[in-house]
Amino acid sequence: MMIAGMRLKLSKLLGEAVGEDPAEPYPQLAFSARVERLLRDHGCQHRSETVDTESGFQGWVLRYALRMLEITYRRLEQPGPTPPPELLARFQEVLPGPPEEFTEFFQGRIDAASSCRRAVEVQRLLGGQGPVLCLGDDDGTSVALALLGVEKVAVLDIDVRVLEWLRASGLPIELERGDVREMPASHRSRFAAVVTDPVRDGPAGAAFLRAAGRCLRRGGWLFWADHPDWNPGYPVLERWTHRLHLEPIRVLKDWHAYRAAYLDDSTAEHFGLDPDWLRRLAADVRIWSHLHVLKKA
Fold first, then answer.
1. Domains of the chain (ranges plus CATH)?
2. Is 108 or 138 the better-scoring residue by pLDDT?
3. Beta strands in the chain (DSSP E)
4. pTM score, two decimals?
């Protein structure tokens, strides 16, 4: 579907929830104002203090869904930087048919353009100099880095299927099965950069950041994918970056796109919404994460 057609489709979807049927796509400010209206009407304008209660969890889900709808709409008109066409084509050629995402490992894969966009930023900052460690890599970022000529790319992943998928690329990537909670001693202070897209959870996500902090050499770079409107544990992880002496340098906003998944009808039932409306929203939006760039002091 062309961009204008998708913008109209999302405008009609949002309009349906506020009693409108727009004939043309909303301007961005008008779209955002209607998102704010829905959040206000359902008491979800601010982050839930806890997701451990039913109301807190459902409020977080609805807020997250509507914020991602808003970002998806904006990205249709203002897309992120396009990675080099030759890199994207080669990436898709050497990495066909990724393994199915496993909920056991909390996997959520970004699209190919996002993987390449991420790798380009890493390569730009490092100037091609490694070594670089990907802590978890069901996105194939290591392959994009290798295609860009980054030296000494390594991956640590708990899922052997992901490692075999990356190995099939035939590129010189160091692949190791392991758990971020039990990092090899040989990785300590070894890497010039670490790339990670961790679990959207406070304690589990913190394990990835702690592992990254241990693996980085002084002056090394952390590329961390996350989003405060997605991850209820985001404040916990932010605090961990300070404890680990990781200095925030920049945030590349809404850098990575993921497919959304519809969980169940409980959120619609909690707020008195049409479950079909939320299902259609989940089918049409993308989930987004920022790329946080931090430097180890």
1. 3-77 (no CATH), 85-296 (3.40.50.150)
2. 138
3. 132-135, 153-157, 173-177, 191-196, 216-226, 246-259, 286-296
4. 0.93
